[in-house]
Amino acid sequence: MNQLHYQNILSDSLREKKHLAILIDPDKFTISETEIFLQKIPKETTHLFVGGSTDANGYTQETVKALKNHSSLPIILFPGDYTQITKYADAILFLSLLSGRNPEYLIGQQLKAVDKLKEAALEIIPTGYILIDGGNQSAVARVSKTEPLSQKDSLTIVNTALTGQFMGAKLIYLEAGSGAIKPVNSNIISQVKKAINIPLIVGGGIKTEAQKQAAFKAGADMVVMGTAFEAKDE
Ligand code: 1GP
């Protein structure tokens, strides 16, 4: 299996070249406005992530196709469940929710995904996904029925990230939850970054340039921003 997209993330992380992923939640996206959306996102965007905790309307595939038609950026699936897998993307974060103790999100959804992945030529990127308390209840916590890790317990967060690495994850994703009040703090990001030797993704509640830069400075190799670029209801 070709690992082009992962190799790019890995080699850039080794030379401290930072990546910015914009997250598109198909449930909150208007496909007819794809071009306008792509004009509004930052010029330095390196990846488009597509996914949501739920895809009640089954729009993921059409969203990916529309983005593909109008952008040459890599499109990486960030699925809330196996039904969101589509062959039209370039790669998939194959997530395991390591902060939780719900077997459905540690191994159950992954098994359900396999038949779809056998058919699709997607690059599969094993990712240790760690939900951290962002100050409000996140959709991830609600849907997965798991508790986030406390930002006060950095040792458990660091050890959970290392567990992921030891189990073979190629990326670690620190997630405060979409719309978090408190993004993952810099101290946690830097402790995790020092402990692991695989690239680190950070997202959830990052809305401003200052917050993004703080996450990069602390050691994030890739920052994910979603809500900041969603169309606001007038
Ligand atoms: C959520 O990390 C992402 O999965 C992005 O969060 O929507 O708060 O930017 P925001």
Please sum up the structure shown:
This protein is 36% helix and 18% strand. The protein is of the alpha/beta class and 234 residues long. Bound molecules: SN-glycerol-1-phosphate (1GP).
Walk me through what this model shows.
The chain is α/β, with parallel strands linked by helices and 234 residues long. It has one domain (4-230): Alpha-Beta Barrel (TIM Barrel), CATH 3.20.20.390. The chain contains 8 helices and 8 strands. The protein has helices at 4-14, 34-40, 60-70, 103-119, 139-144, 154-166, 186-195, 209-218; strands at residues 19-24, 47-50, 75-77, 91-97, 123-131, 171-175, 200-203, 222-225. Strands 1-2-3-4-5-6-7-8 form an 8-stranded parallel beta barrel, surrounded by 6 helices. α3 links the parallel β2 and β3. The protein starts with a helix and ends in a 9-residue tail after the last strand. The model has no long low-confidence stretch (mean pLDDT 97). The structure holds SN-glycerol-1-phosphate. SN-glycerol-1-phosphate binds next to β8.
